[in-house]
From TrEMBL:
GO molecular function terms attached to this record: glycerate kinase activity
NCBIfam families listed in its UniProt record: glycerate kinase (TIGR00045)
Source organism per UniProt: Microbacterium phyllosphaerae
Known EC number: 2.7.1.31
Protein name as catalogued: Glycerate kinase
Cross-referenced Pfam families: Gly_kinase (PF02595)
Keyword Transferase: yes
Keywords: Kinase, Transferase
Enzyme class: transferase
Recorded family membership: Belongs to the glycerate kinase type-1 family.
PANTHER family: GLYCERATE KINASE
Top-level taxon in the UniProt lineage: Bacteria
């Protein structure tokens, strides 16, 4: 009897990690009906982080909240409350930026006006609930606001030369003349999940590397980079610190608040008990929407492959697409939904269908 652990990341914008795991299991079972399955949907701090904890932690409960989304309109979302523990008697809140201030919430890019206010509002709601610990995922950001929206929602004030609040988003960064943190709420134990090690500024910084994904271009990148450097001075933040450039500088803002940055995939895996699940597995299947040249740098698939190897299990990969520059040598076999479906459009339209086919294909491969 084959024991299969299913630990995919979400296929961004198309199917959740939990649903991807279900589809892969259905496909595998069609070939190997005696197999047993353990589902441990994964995340690295981006889209699907809350869902991964919800699926893995007994007693986890969604708490609804209404926040200002990245387009400025009110949105209904939620944060996750984990049960109390000895070291967190008030429980642990899991809040992700993707579902509060994420790029997937936009109908069109807003490089200058999108911000992280909603993320901060959700964190504030969790603090109001009385949680002892925060776990926050900061992938899939829509903005490059240096985390000012988040800090403002927690009580900070960003003021221009006349003492008035600056505009939200990257638009207001250059106008910040002073920062008032006297009203900033006290941080509990805060762990930040991120797969990004970029500094705040410079050629590998938030504006230069991630700004184009959010709509920044040419002179705009230069302007925002300079404004982030000035913000770092006002906040007494080292802009060269690894991870401060995550989520448009939100990583740096969280450090200022007192949080600790941690590798997203590793932290999620530890908190959901993934290593124990894999310890006696025969096969481990992981995956993500696009497995490319960056996937070997701390992303979920490469991390899972390492755990599988250490446990003596066979690692397999299913991805929406697998690019030519990716390293598939980590896996005994791989399956591309784009290749199985015949086109990327077809794969994107019916991800659950093609993941079932991928599960069957991988079962036959071993």
């Amino acid at each position: 009897m084959t024991r299969v652990v299913l630990a995919p990341d979400s296929f961004k914008g198309t199917i959740t990690a939990a649903d991807a795991a279900v589809s892969l299991a259905e496909g595998w079972a069609s070939v190997d009906p005696t197999a047993t399955f353990v589902r441990r949907p994964m995340a690295d701090g981006g889209e699907g982080t809350v869902a991964a904890f919800e699926a893995a932690v007994p007693g986890a409960r969604r708490v609804p909240v209404v926040v200002d989304g990245p387009a400025g309109s009110r949105i209904d979302t939620s944060w996750l409350l984990l049960p109390p523990t000895t070291d967190a008697p008030g429980g642990t809140a899991v809040v992700d930026l993707a579902s509060t201030s994420g790029i997937e919430l936009l109908d069109e890019l807003r490089p200058w006006d999108a911000d992280t206010t909603g993320f901060g509002q959700a964190i504030a709601a969790a603090l109001d609930h009385g949680v002892s610990r925060l776990v926050v995922g900061i992938g899939s950001s829509a903005s490059t606001d240096g985390g000012t929206g988040m800090l403002a929602a927690l009580g900070a004030r960003f003021l221009d030369a006349a003492g008035a609040p600056v505009a939200r988003g990257a638009r207001g960064l250059a106008d910040i003349a002073s920062v008032d943190l006297t009203g900033l709420r006290t941080a509990p134990d805060v762990r930040v999940l991120t797969d990004v090690t970029n500094p705040l500024v410079g050629p590998r910084g938030a504006a230069a590397v991630f700004g184009p994904q959010k709509g920044l271009a040419d002179d705009g990148i230069t302007q925002v980079d300079a404004a982030l450097a000035h913000l770092a001075q006002l906040l007494a933040l080292d802009p060269a610190l690894a991870g401060t450039g995550a989520a448009g500088g939100t990583g740096g803002a969280l450090v200022v608040w007192g949080a600790t940055l941690a590798p997203g995939a590793g932290e999620v895996a530890e908190l959901i008990g993934l290593a124990d699940a894999i310890a006696d597995a025969d096969v481990v299947i992981t995956g993500e929407g696009s497995y490319d040249g960056q996937s070997g740098d701390g992303k979920v698939p490469s991390f899972i492959a390492g755990l599988a190897s250490a446990a003596g299990a066979t690692a397999l990969l299913a991805a929406g697409r697998i690019t030519d520059d990716s390293d598939t040598a980590l896996f005994a076999a791989s399956a591309s939904l784009t290749e199985i479906a015949g086109s990327s459009d077809a794969a994107l339209a019916e991800p659950a269908r093609w993941l079932r086919d991928a599960g069957a294909l991988l079962a036959r491969s071993v």
